[in-house]
Amino acid sequence: MEWEAPVSRDVLLHYVLAAFSMKRSAKAKSRFAEVFDSLGLDTTSRGEHVFVWKKSQLPSEYAEFRTVGANGEKRKTDDIATEEIAAAVVYILRSAVSLERPELVKETVKLFGAARTTEAGELAVSMGISHAVKSGKAAVDQDTGRILFSEDHV
Fold first, then answer.
1. Which conformational region is residue 52 in: left (phi greater than 0), alpha (psi within -120 to 50 degrees), or beta?
2. Residue 48 placed within a domain
């Protein structure tokens, strides 16, 4: 976790199973969930997706994002914390100033290496946009619906 956090619980499970040369199974997933829940780790969630944070990271203040995982592979949007997606949204808006929501979703998904926007990707990015707006790092123009970069958080 030191080199890849926030990290999704599913990615952690993958790493643990790979470290012990085990295959993914319902039993392994269930046991991992029991152990995971007993550790008292700092987590956030988006629907059924749980993300683990280092103790030194504050999700409410997180402003970084990684385009690839620690192993250099593309990251699925399901495996990227909402706060990290929000940071990518702000990064895009900082140079674009404002974008229509569909274009911002497309650019954000592309930034994370996806060739096309899936339904899951659109949902994850939409939640990231909402997070950026709620935290004051972005705003919605009430007349046009465009998403704007908020200068208050430079």
1. beta
2. yes
